[in-house]
């Protein structure tokens, strides 16, 4: 979990530029479109997947007209059908990677992902090769505000909170994936404005690597994330203080 939290922190710091923001908009827009087509209509009150996607869109300050365009696209007949695909493999140094994609062209996606692995010192593996190293968890992020972490933990534990962390004014709540819906409802009841609510693949145990390997692996992660069909990339690397210092200095 420490690796996940530190990498999230790095991404928050590096995520302010226009390129990262554009990628976030594209990823969430696609999720909104799929949610409309597969989740039961355009009313978020009756479409939990759409409600979640819209909340995440607001969390990255996506303009309302962009959200509406994505919703409209989901209602149009003859639009592209998206498939959810997962790819597994290794980055330099044997770092395990789990890649989640949402695509309208599976041939294009697998070719692009394979090329990204091959060109950056990685190896694309067969399904199931690294998935067992990860657990699917619900991850909620929101501003700490006036909340006391210990009090909030006691408030949320009955609804599945496994971990509640505060870092740089941001609270991260981790749940088992089966408690994702319960936690979402609980945070809504507490009137907490959640900036991000996602299901993520969290490593069961982080793997220690040297700073050089970490730099190469994280560079590969960034390149894979930039592909238009990629929704998320997860790794099992332990980000030590040495590695953090190296990354933050760049």
CATH structural fold name of the largest domain: Alpha-Beta Plaits
Total DSSP E strands? 10
Computed over alpha carbons, the radius of gyration is: 18 Å
Helix content: 40-55%
SSE ordering: HHHHEEHEEHEEHEEHEEH
Q: Low-confidence runs (pLDDT<50, min 5 residues)?
A: 1-17
Q: In DSSP terms, counting alpha (H) and pi (I) runs of 4 or more, how many helices?
A: 9
Q: What's the number of structural domains?
A: 3
The CATH architecture of the largest domain comes to: 2-Layer Sandwich
Distance between the termini: 24 Å
Strand arrangement, largest sheet? 3-1-2-9
Q: Given this structure, which CATH class of the largest domain is correct?
A: Alpha Beta
**Quick one: overall form?**
globular
Residue-averaged pLDDT, rounded?
A: 86
Largest sheet: 4 strands, antiparallel
CATH H-tier superfamily of the largest domain: YebC, transcriptional regulation domain
Estimate what percentage of residues fall within beta strands. 25-35%
